Amino acid sequence: MLKDLDIHVSPLRAKDDYDTSYILSLILDIGEEMLTCGAEINRVEDSIYRMLTAYGYRKVNVFSIPEFISVSIVDHDGEIITQSRRIYKFSNDFYRLEQLNEMSRQICAKKPNVANLWSHLEMIESVPYAQSTAFLAFAHFLGGSCFSIFLGGDLGDGFAAGCVALIFLLMGRISKVQNLNKIFYTALSALLGGLAAIIFGHIGIGQHVDKVMIGDIMLLIPGMALTTAIRDMLCGDLMAGLFRALESIMVAGAIALGYAIPIYLLGGML
Fold first, then answer.
1. Domain check: are 112 and 150 in the same one?
2. Which of 7, 16, 63, 104 has its CA at a distance of 20 to 30 angstroms from the CA of residue 52?
3. Which H or E run contains 81?
4. Of 108, 125, 142, which marks where a domain is finished?
5. Are 69 and 87 in contact (CB under 8 A)?
6. How far apart are the C-alpha atoms of 264 and 2, rounded to whole Å?
7. Has residue 79 got a pLDDT over 60?
8. 111/52 Cα distance (integer angstroms)
9. Looking at 9-13, 104-108, 172-176, 200-204, which range is the least confident one?
10. How far is it, in rounded angstroms, from Cα 92 to Cα 82?
11. C-alpha span between 135 and 146 (Å, rounded)
12. Is the pLDDT of residue 199 over 50?
């Protein structure tokens, strides 16, 4: 529980628990981490609002889109304080998101000591990704294989699609390290995936190159992002929904371009 944490607090953060800028910065950091881990826009806005009102701030305005959060509050002296965060990285780390959601509920219910909150947030941020590399490799291989077979391929096509899917896992790791643009990363992954599928077809592993490609394309399609975009728009977050929808369309175009290049150059579908 948050109240039981007893972790050393950095001297730079050893401030008065009732310093408004300090509390706002902390809660905004929690919201930033939630958005980075894949939380919905309305969940992030609602969590920030509830945490700030739990500490007694009544005039709270929160605005968020997938890459930006801004919060404006009126403190107990009537002064308006505004802080913002620019979001540069995204993931779907639902284990860490679950910890952040529990932390926000604890804040709303118990209003714990702010120094302990900093320590707890740092502890959550330091938690490594919940799934091992071996598990992710197995999941990618299984996903690519099953999609290929389900869409009409044979066992050889499924094996080839599974091997190509491992390229996507490798590209995902490189993308996180190099902080690559998502659209560029998707186009490059599709390009390498298309080349690998054609090579597998030429050496006799995966006789139906189209089935191999289709199985792997299913792994790149931004289905969750598009679904979230529709959900945001239905919930009234039109700007956030439009941003996500536009990103999904551009990612889909990057997939098409990435696969079209090797098909055009090497004739892998002919």
1. no
2. 7
3. strand 80-86
4. 125
5. yes
6. 58
7. yes
8. 10
9. 9-13
10. 28
11. 16
12. yes
Residues 177-198 pLDDT 10s: 677 788 898 999 999 999 999 9
Rounded to 5°, the CA angle 86-80-100 comes to: 45
pLDDT (0 to 100) of residue 129: 65
Contact between residue 217 and residue 85 where contact means Cβ atoms under 8 Å apart: no
* pLDDT above 70 for 14: no
> Does 32 or 12 have the greater pLDDT score?
32
Query: Which residues touch 122 (CB under 8 Å, ≥6 apart)?
Result: 7
109 and 41 within one domain: yes
In the chain, the largest separation of any two C-alpha atoms, in whole Å, equals 75
121-135, 151-165, 240-254: the lowest-pLDDT one = 121-135
Please state the length of the chain: 270
Alpha-carbon distance values, 65 to 61, 84, 260 (Å): 14, 12, 32
- Mean pLDDT, the chain, integer: 84
Q: What is the pLDDT of residue 18?
A: 54
Average pLDDT on 152-175 reads: 90
**What's the DSSP call for residue 18?**
T
Same domain for 138 and 261: yes
pLDDT at 237: 81
d(CA 67, CA 228): 15
Range of the domain at 95: 2-125
Whether 89 contacts 80, CB under 8 Å: no
Domain end point (choices 109, 125, 141): 125
Number of domains in the chain: 2
Query: Partners of 83 in the beta sheet?
Result: 71
Tokens of residue 149, six digits: 């077979």
Residues 68 and 90 in one domain: yes
Report the Cα 59 to chain-centroid distance in Å: 30
Contacts of 126 (CB under 8 A, 6+ apart): none
